[in-house]
Design brief:
Elements (H helix, E strand, L loop, with lengths): L8 H24 L16 H7 L2 H34 L5 H9 L6 H15 L5 H25 L3 H9 L4 H30 L2 H6 L7 H11 L3 H31 L5
Helix pairs in contact: 1-11, 2-11, 3-6, 3-8, 3-10, 6-8, 7-8, 8-11
Length: 267
């Protein structure tokens, strides 16, 4: 190049791989505006009829509402458990700590279908299959490890001496956590809640096993649509999910940037 800079082959290869992975997602968006009743690329014409079909269809709206309710409840439960677990692990040292951490993070390594089958077997005895409680608990099982990882990373950047100073000045451990620790790791907790929400909102395997007619989620409705009625409505809903995912990732990056600033790291 004229300015003396050289192209990095690894960077070029990385961008090619990213483009290859994103191309199918990008292709869905123009298909969602197709005027045809079939999934065609390029579309013969453009129309908003499939977004209208999604918004004014009670089955799609009920599935969307179910997903939002389940994802919100899962996010709250996962973050509450994840915060307590990550805080406890960061403040204790004992021989079985590594084994406990491996057990907590095991859902990240076990295939989702295995977890879903095992959860279905247990929940069938507890009569939780087909209920909102059951599907929320099922989603919590698979989102809980993510919250522990994210919040543990936030606690690693936190200086525990700040909390110890607050306790030495007369604050109770609960007040020290609420007024000293929590404000500093708040960005990490928000990031964990966003990841838990997004993961629960997009989960289809657990919903297939644990869910029922009254708890049909949006991803499960999409899966049924692909099997029985393949129309551009699927592309319209998928485009909306892509935009939601991008928005959540963008918000996550904002809070991650703020957490690094609070921790004294270079942005």
């Amino acid at each position: 190049m004229s300015d003396g800079r050289r192209l990095n082959p690894l960077a070029i290869f990385s961008w090619v791989v990213v483009a290859f992975l994103l191309l199918p997602l990008i292709a869905i968006i123009p298909m969602s505006f197709s005027s045809s009743s079939l999934l065609r690329l390029p579309p013969p014409g453009y129309s908003l009829r499939w977004y209208e079909a999604y918004l004014f269809n009670s089955a799609w709206m009920n599935a969307t509402l179910n997903s939002v309710i389940i994802a919100c409840a899962t996010s709250i439960l996962s973050v509450a458990l994840g915060t307590a677990t990550a805080y406890g692990l960061s403040r204790t040292k004992w021989k079985g700590k590594a084994l406990l951490q491996a057990l907590i993070l095991s859902p990240l390594l076990i295939p989702g279908i295995v977890i879903a089958v095992a959860t279905y077997s247990v929940f069938s005895m507890l009569k939780l299959n087909g209920t909102f409680t059951g599907i929320i608990l099922g989603h919590t099982i698979i989102t809980f490890p993510y919250t522990v990882v994210v919040i543990s990373a936030a606690l690693e950047r936190f200086d525990p001496r700040l909390e110890q100073m607050a306790v030495s000045l007369g604050a109770t451990p609960l007040k020290a956590f609420a007024f000293v620790t929590f404000p500093i790791i708040r960005a990490g907790i928000i990031i964990a809640s966003l990841f838990a929400f997004l993961h629960s909102f997009d989960e289809v395997v657990m919903a297939t096993f644990i869910g029922g007619p009254a708890t049909t989620t949006l991803p499960l409705r999409i899966w049924d649509g692909i099997r029985f009625e393949l129309t551009p409505v699927i592309a319209a809903v998928s485009s909306i999910l892509i935009l939601i995912s991008c928005a959540v990732i963008g918000i996550t990056e904002v809070f991650n940037h703020r957490s690094r600033i609070l921790a004294g790291e270079k942005p």
